[in-house]
Amino acid sequence: MKTQICIIGGGPSGLLLAQLLNNNAIDTVVIERRNKEHVLSRIRAGVLEQGFSKMMRDAGCGERMDKEGEVHSGFQIADGNRLKRIDLSKLTGGRTVMVYGQTELTRDLYDARERANGLTIYNVEDVNLNDLTTDAPVVEFSVNGETEQIYCDLVVGADGFHGVSRKSIPKGKLTEHGRTYPFGWLGILSRTKPVSSELVYARHSRGFALCSMRNKLLSRYYIQVPISDSVEDWSDDRFWNELRSRLPDSLLSSLETGSSIEKSIAPLRSYVAEPMSYGNLFLAGDAAHIVPPTGAKGLNSAGADIYYLYRAILDRYLRDDKTGLDNYSSKALTRVWKTQRFSWWMTSLLHVFPEATSFEKRLQESELNYLLSSENALSLLAENYVGLPY
Ligand code: APR
Ligand code: PHB
């Protein structure tokens, strides 16, 4: 089959780009390794920068987000029993974030694609990207035991960290940067009233904790755990007791506990692959970069890639101008590295590092004390949290 843009990956990156292009009569085919139910079963972060929310509206997919999502003008940082509100709106001249689950956002994008009769091929296997450095790339894959080819102009690799796209770039052309963190996040979802109406990022000598939510009756909590831990080590009761031990006393009376409807441990890593393009292959989102979830930048960093790539593709087709595509990688990476810095900084600030020296521990305390006592430092935190400009 033939199309203009073949998008590998039916996650939020691929689907958002597909919808934006579809609205401009640019033909796309999305191929996805899993089925739709599996993609929508994934529990992921739920804090959207304004730029991302705007793209959802521009794509015609923002209605439910605006109806069911919550606009947050601040969040809290807890340090032991100290609790400080970060007034995002005051610190950034009125900017806010949208709390809306990535699962719901992905569902909205799938629904929009189906309404637009966009072609999404599920359960693909053995995906191979060929002739990427020619003007006629070919994506080959099998589905239902049949081998298929997609002849296209451009290939977008939105297939996540474990996808095939980045691995299709010759080793000699790719430089990879990264680090892993000596801990993971144990997360649970529970049908309980959130402990606070705003997110709470808690630094504690026992380890980091995060109180988030999906809506007023669905809470999402995380605690830092040793990377060697497994979910089986953590009963619900043990989780709630550990979370309780890391939160300020002032929050405990409003902590509603209950059964977990989802429980998982995620490793934390920082990762960037450079460049983000090779011939007519363009990487976007987790296919090119990963951040620790502390700053809620995974989806938002993918959003910036989509913003740049969408405009570059429009220029190519509507104005016969390939400058945007030629500059995509360098432009995207400039913002990627700013997001990497912020996510690494916020992770370094709020977590217990088992191997930290006494000097490093005191430095971390000083960094937090400086942050919480300086309007300038808080402004830097706030402008990164609400999202740097595209
Ligand atoms: N062929 C087709 N699809 C693939 C392949 C492949 N070889 N490999 C992976 N995929 C699919 C995955 O099943 C997944 O649905 O690509 C999609 C990639 O989606 P994500 O991993 O969600 O990545 P992305 O769309 O960039 O979204 C980034 O979502 O996963 C979170 O933490 C991430 O918040 C970040 C955001
Ligand atoms: C979440 O709600 O899953 C979430 C929120 C904020 C973060 C990370 C995760 O920084």
CATH architecture of the largest domain: 3-Layer(bba) Sandwich
Number of alpha- plus pi-helical segments: 12
Number of strands: 20
Q: Segments where pLDDT lies below 50 for 5+ residues?
A: none
Average pLDDT over all residues: 97
Strand percentage:
25-35%
User: Any idea how many domains?
Assistant: 2
- What's the gyration radius in Å? 21 Å
Please report the distance between the alpha carbons of the first and last residues.
34 Å
Major sheet description? 8 strands, mixed
CATH class of the largest domain: Alpha Beta
The helix/strand class is alpha+beta
Strand order across the largest sheet: 6-5-14-15-16-13-17-20
Q: Which hetero compounds are present in the coordinates? A: adenosine-5-diphosphoribose, P-hydroxybenzoic acid
Quaternary structure annotation:
single chain
Helix content: 25-40%
Q: For the record, what is the CATH homologous superfamily label of the largest domain?
A: FAD/NAD(P)-binding domain
Global geometry: globular
